[in-house]
Structure formats: structure tokens, C-alpha cells
Amino acid sequence: MSTSVIVIVSESRYSPKHYLYVTDELKESFNSSSPHASWDQVAQEVRQVVLKHLDSGRDVIPLTHSFGGIAMSEAFKGLKKQYREKQGLKSPILRLVHMSAMVLPQGQSYIGQMEPGTPKEELDKQEKEMQAKYGGINV
């Protein structure tokens, strides 16, 4: 039976030193770099780390914090048990652990999840929703 691994996907402004109290016992498996320039770069790097563990027969439990939830949304696509089993692969993502993390619905962006902050933004949002729903107004 394989041993599970926990992959920590941190908040965008944090570096590995912020998690040292968590990782002191896990130093041998801890491998991360400083904050990255973009979420897609983080997602690619996270996916590589996760696949390395999955391909070695280990189940993975990702722990995401804040921005890490965004990277996780992209990085872990197709790695759940049901998808991996269809491909004849045994080690899956077992569970997702979100620690104050943002989880985006498929096709959404971080900005798309923001609530309007001013009355004008609220009106603009309502207008866009009405145009999408009713196709605009014919005068």
C-alpha cells in the first residue's frame, strides 16, 4: 500500500519559510521556490510535483491556502480517482484541503468572483446580466 503525500500550495505572497513550522518534519519531501509571477506558472509547477508523487504510487492530499486554491483549480484537473482509474492509474488525489483558499468554478477567474464595490459597478453588473439574459433592448 502506498504512503500518501500532502502537497502545500501556498498563498501568492508567501514563501516556503512561512510554512517551516509545518514542514520541519517533512523536510525531505519539501521542495518549493519563492513566489511566482503568474498563477498558470504555479499551476504547471504544482502539477509536476503532484504527478511525480502520483506516478511513484503515492496518493496525494493537496493543502491549499488563499491563492493556492486558484492554482489548484487548474493543476489538479483530471487527477481525481475516477479519471485516473479510467486510465489504468491507481494513485489519485484523495481529498482537497482548503485553508482560507479560493476555489474557482470551472471557467471563472479571480476577478470574476469579485463583488462590485461601488453603485456604478453594481449597475454595470446588473446591466450585463440583463443583456445576457434578454439579449439587450431593441428600441
Question: What would a concise description of this structure say?
Answer:
Helices cover 37% and strands 12% of the residues. With 139 residues, the protein is of the alpha/beta class. It has a three-stranded parallel sheet.
Structure commentary:
The chain has 139 residues and is an alpha/beta fold. Helices cover 37% and strands 12% of the residues. The chain is built from five helices and three strands, in the order βααβααβα. The protein has helices at 20-23, 39-55, 68-75, 81-86, 119-134, and strands at residues 5-9, 60-66, 97-101. The chain has a three-stranded parallel beta sheet. α2 packs across α3. The longest helix has 17 residues, at 39-55. The mean pLDDT is 76.
